[in-house]
Amino acid sequence: MVAVSTLWLPILVSAILVFIVSSIFWMVVRHHDSDWKGLPGEEGILDALRKARVPRGQYRFPWAEGKQMQTPEMKKKMAEGPAGFLTFWDRYDVPMGRNMIAWFVYLLAVSFLVAYLAGLVLAPGAAASPVFRFVAVAAILAYAAALVPRSIWWGQAWSVTWKEVFDGVVYGLVTALAFAWLWPR
Asked: Where are the beta strands (DSSP E) in 2-143?
């Protein structure tokens, strides 16, 4: 068993490396550019949303709660469409600096939890191969596994999900490389 406190270097290095790789994916490779599309008739839709004074939040339409979803009226609305999910901001004021810091803290948290798991099952001085294999599986699960239900349940395009899963696999492998390299000997 390895105390997580002795794994601070692989935790930090893996978070930094994943941050760099994710930045390259989003700013250089740009394979996520096609994940979103514009709405036809966007101006009219934006005007309608402004007039409705929709507050920031997540919405499902048509809307009904619980058993109301099973009523003939709701089934008719759903069949006729349109139907969908909407994440709404009253204006786009996303603070990139704050979000980048939050992303890095998230990467540290994933690396910390992976370190904790690895420390429970791997010994000090473990060879690089078992460290890599264990950490890769744990980190890939952390970065990629939870993304699939977005296509299953929420209608996200599978092409988007597979790109996100690809990213998660790469992040997991980068994390595993850092841990295999810096595992206490």
From this structure: 57-61, 84-88
Please check whether residue 135 is in contact with residue 114, taking contact to mean a CB–CB distance below 8 angstroms. Answer: yes
Question: How many angstroms separate the CA atoms of 83 and 85, rounded?
Answer: 7
Domain definitions of the chain by residue range: 4-35+95-182
With 0-12 / 13-18 / 19 or more C-beta atoms within 10 angstroms meaning exposed / middle / buried, residue 167 is buried
| Residue 124, SS3 per DSSP | coil
Residue entry with tokens 């934006």: 46
56 contacts 88 by C-beta, under 8 angstroms? yes
CB within 8 Å of 169: residues ≥ 6 apart: 140, 143, 144
Measured CA to CA, the distance from residue 166 to residue 170 in angstroms comes to 6
pTM (two decimals): 0.89
The per-residue pLDDT string of the chain (185 residues; one tens digit each, 9 = 90 and over) reads 999 999 999 999 999 999 999 999 999 999 999 999 999 999 999 999 999 999 999 999 999 998 998 999 999 999 999 999 999 888 888 889 999 999 999 999 999 999 999 999 999 999 999 999 999 999 999 999 999 999 999 999 999 999 999 999 999 999 999 999 999 99
What does the alpha-carbon distance between residue 135 and residue 157 come to, in Å, rounded to a whole number?
A: 29
Which residue's entry shows tokens 């309608």? 48
